[in-house]
Amino acid sequence: MSHRSVVIAAAVNNEQILADTLALSPDLTSGRVKFIPVRAAESASAAYNTVLSETTADLVIFVHQDVYLPAGWVALILSEALRLDQESPDWAVMGVYGITREGKHLGRIWSGDQQLELVGDGGLSGAIASLDEVVLILRTNAGLSFDPDLPHFHMYGTDIVQMAASAGRSAHVIQAPVVHNTIPVVSLAGGFTAGYRFLQKKWAVRLPIVTSMTTITHAGLPLFRARARHWWYSRRMIKRSGIEPPRVTDVVALAKAVGYESIVNA
């Protein structure tokens, strides 16, 4: 596995969240993997393209600042990359959670906003339509970069999968669970809606496109249903606790408790 070089990158806007979560990941605390934080970026695409333009690594792992990577996680990613080199030489991007064109959810992560584990519908096979942005692993020699015109910090997991397909490259979900130590997004208006509208126009000839949150269609009716559903869910959670649900206080202990290190090092 040592012949591949890898870096981890994250868009950072909260140093405390970074320190409490991603920075505790053993692959980072040990110094085995270089970490590239990008601060004050106007969009995810701007942040991540900065990393791609400056790195010579074979793989770039783009991860949210509020994600904990269990011990041994990067070694697993390198192993999965080697496997895909053999089984799907055209691969360009992989993630830890995604959805197929038929609407089948794949992968496994701990969701902090829902306070439960999200587990996909079985195996990891299927033509991927969208990857969750929580973790994206990009193979740099695939020649892809993120669309600089895509605004804000949403929908780029869907966009990069569609860009890969346009380039004749494949996307994959792998079994490499992480703890997403997040709190609920109160509304899907704003940045999420802007990203949805952007992809509506960009990929008009490919619609509908299924994502884990909603489906992108010409009319956009699924967006309004998703916004209403999300508004109801966030209000219920806030009513139940009085405030937004608290973040996990010990991501290291949680990863061990749910068996992620055992899975990663199996």
TrEMBL record:
Q: Which domain of life is it from?
A: Bacteria
- Where the record annotates domain Streptomycin biosynthesis protein StrF, the positions are 11-112
**Gene3D superfamilies xrefs:** Spore Coat Polysaccharide Biosynthesis Protein SpsA, Chain A (3.90.550.10)
Q: Which InterPro entries match?
A: Nucleotide-diphossugar_trans (IPR029044), StrF_dom (IPR059123)
Name recorded for this polypeptide? Streptomycin biosynthesis protein StrF domain-containing protein
Species of origin = Sandarakinorhabdus glacialis
